[in-house]
Structures are given as C-alpha cells and as structure tokens.
C-alpha cells in the first residue's frame, strides 16, 4: 500500500478523503442517488482524478476516452482486481469467461463467440418473443384483479422475464418451471443488493489477505457466500445434465436446438482449441448472473423514463403500431425504440463502473494535460504494478466533450438528429457507448441483450400504458448494477393500465 501511495499518483488532484478507513468509497458506492459526488468531481477535477480507497489507498478514477482506450486495448497490463476475481472464481468457477485471463480467455472466448453472433441472436427471435408475451399475460391477469388506481411493482416480474429469456435463449432450460432454482436465484439478487458498510470494508481488506489464508477462511463462509455457493452447485448439477444431453444429440446427428449453449457445444466440437466440459459448465452460472440482472435493470429504467415522458411513450407506441405485428418487425429499424435504449444505456449505465489493477509498471496516456498538486503539467501518468484503476463508465457517459453540453439530460432525440456520436476516441461495440465496455473483454452478450430489450419493451408498450407512482420515490442505487430503489428496497412501482 505504501508503495502505491508514493510516487506520482499522490500528486494527481482529487477530492478530499472524509475518512482514513473508508476513503471516498462511501461517497462513490453508497451515495443515493448514485453518482452525486462522482459527477461533480468530474466537473471539478476533470476526466482523470485521484480518489481514496480503504486505509488511505490511492485509486485513479478514469473517464478520459484516450486513457480508457489504452487500458481496454492492453488487457495483459490492466487485469481484473483481486476483489472482482475472488467473487468470479468462488461464485462462477475457474473456467468462467468473467474470471479467465490471457490465453485461456482468448481460447474460451473464441469458442463462445459464434454462439453470440448476429445470426445466432436473430434465430432466437421466437424464444424472446415468447418470454415477452409471458410477462404481458401475467401483468394482464394482475391488473384485471386490482383496482385501476393501484400501482404495480414491475421489478420482480421483469427479473422473472429476463431470467426466462436467458434460460430458454442461452442455456436451453425453463428456469421459471423449476421453482427451487428460481427461488435460489431470487435470493442471490437480494444478496447482491446488500449495500452495508461492512461490504465496503471487505472490498478494501480482500486484496491484502494472502491466498492460503483466504482458502482457510472460505471453509467458514458467511451466509451470503453460502447462498452463492448453493446457487453455483445447483446450476452446476443442472449444467452437467444439459451439456451431456446436447453432446449426445450432437453425436446422434439430431438437429441442434437454437439455444446458445447448443450452438457452443456444436462449435466446440469443431474447434481445434476446445473448451473442457468443466469450462462449458462454468459458463452456465456466468451467463445467468451476467445476463439476467443487467438486462432487467435496463428494461426497468426504460419503462421508468417512458412513464415520466408520456409524449415519448405515445411516439414509441405509434412507431410500433406502424411497424405491424411483432413477429414481422425488424427491430433494428425502429428509430425511437433504439434511441430510447441507447439513451438509457448512456444515462442509466447498468454497470456504472468496473475496476482494473496494473499488472506491470506502465504509462497511462492522457487526452488533456493535468496540473499536479505540485504545480507540474503532465501529459501522461506512470503507474506502478498494483495500482488500482476505476473505469468510470457512468462518468464517461456524462462527458460534455463527447456528448455535448446537454450530456446530463435524458434526451433520446440526441440519437435521432445524427450529431451525437462522437467526439473523441471510439469506444465500445455499440454507438460509442461504454455500457458494454470495450476491447477484448467487451460484453459477449451485448447483441443478445439489445435484441431482448427491443422485444420486451415493444411488447409492453404495445399492451400497457405507464405513469409514475406519486407515492414512492425511486432512486438510482449502486448495488453491483444500477438498481431502482425505494424506501422499501429494490422496487419499481408504476401505474400500469391495459391498452387492449
Ligand atoms: C444491458 C445489459 C448488459 C450490460 C450493460 C452488460 C455489461 C457488461 C460489462 C460492462 C462487462 C465487462 C465487465 C468487466 O470486464 O469488468 C460485461 C461482460 C460480460 N457480459 Fe455483459 N452486460 C449486459 C448483458 C449481458 C448478457 C445478456 C449476457 C449473456 C447472455 C452477458 C454476459 C457477459 C459475459 C459472459 C461477460 C464477460 C466477457 C469477457 O470477459 O470476455 N452480459 N458485460
């Protein structure tokens, strides 16, 4: 820690630290609404500044497009943090795409890529439409049974739908029909929403616990970890059976299913650098966890903004009416729908930040010079092995230099007038957004997620109207992903009415 506190980083300007124990972490992680401090610091200190972690550790908060581009294109130099990797390995497995680094990551990613190609995702249209129709049928039944003034907490059913979509579309399994599994998964989402000070301290302490000590500690897991390990074991058992079925079908020459794991098993059989069965198994938990919560939250925020913007809702409904029945629509050609999704990914970045640690001494380039607190003007920053970096996804999405002076406004029309994208480095796979990160660790499920959101939002806007609930305030809250939170916990209460 001392080594990291010395040198140039200490002189990079940044906000004062209110506490030696927590540094700025409570302001960054626990502040509601998310980003209140972070977005103000960006205005005061610029696109790269120093913050404090636990016990006086210096961390760099980065939204500078040039610096981010450099970090994302050098994955061997900027690796995942020990905190992230401990959770990934323990919860998802040592073969998880989220955990593996270097050659193993390249090999596994190459085998998985065909399953997530544009063609594979297009083939899932009917499966995704079925999951979307199921949610609207549930809502219709609930609304028929309640008074017209009641509000509906749409959050749990959005999670159920995205779990179903990932289940049937990606792993080829009906999770909702398996009540035991659905309950285990629900518990996991509740745990992820834990935002206690002790979880912040744990994050600060973890990197300093030697691996052998950690192994011993894992024999006495806290209740949250027990739930995670139970989920991992349940999905691991399920995965083994499903993979065996898919491999047997492949050997017998049976026409493969359309789900992405079937495609993956097929592409693996033809690949020269194969994934092991154990590695394929680890992708089940990975994809379920990485793909469900992120998409549910993005759909939730989309409906929240539609409820607040009735004009936008009317225009989107008119666009969908004109497009015709849902099974004949090319969703990529609907400008208002896609403008809404892009603007939500920008302003409600579902993964608001991620972390990296410097694996070997290196130099970070800057797009603008920085004046250090010692008065020196620098155009690059030498960083030492072990330096903690925060990739500030949400802050990048609010840079006026990239998105214009109205960067903080919710304004889907910015995507329609053709002048948004983009000043600065081109980042990310989708419209210069960093929501799915970029470089070799770009979210593998981004196409799946866009297709899923297009279909679910269209189905719901065709069938229901949305208005805000006047009773409960909903706040943007950081709980690994960006969660809609009320005084009663993660909820999204809206006034929903049937249209047909
Ligand atoms: C709105 C929806 C989504 C968002 C915003 C999102 C965001 C992200 C981000 C930021 C990362 C990079 C994390 C890091 O390296 O620190 C990531 C990685 C990943 N995502 Fe997503 N994701 C979404 C949906 C999905 C879906 C639907 C799936 C699967 C069906 C998925 C599977 C993955 C996987 C497996 C990785 C690891 C990729 C690698 O390291 O090579 N994600 N996602």
TrEMBL record:
- Pfam families reported for this sequence: p450
Task: Report the coiled-coil segments.
Answer: none
Q: Does the keyword Transmembrane helix apply?
A: yes
Q: Name one GO molecular function term.
A: oxidoreductase activity, acting on paired donors, with incorporation or reduction of molecular oxygen
Which compartments does it reside in? Membrane
Q: Which GO terms describe its cellular component?
A: membrane
Regarding protein family, the annotation reads: Belongs to the cytochrome P450 family.
- Report the source organism: Mycena albidolilacea
Metabolic or biological pathway, per its Swiss-Prot or TrEMBL entry: Secondary metabolite biosynthesis; terpenoid biosynthesis
Q: Does the keyword Iron apply?
A: yes
Q: What InterPro entries does this protein map onto?
A: Cyt_P450, Cyt_P450_E_grp-I, Cyt_P450_sf, Cytochrome_P450_monoxygenase
Name recorded for this polypeptide: Cytochrome P450
Where does the chain bind heme? 443
This protein's cofactor list reads: heme
Please provide the record's keywords in A-Z order.
Heme, Iron, Membrane, Metal-binding, Monooxygenase, Oxidoreductase, Signal, Transmembrane, Transmembrane helix
Q: What's the main place this protein lives?
A: membrane
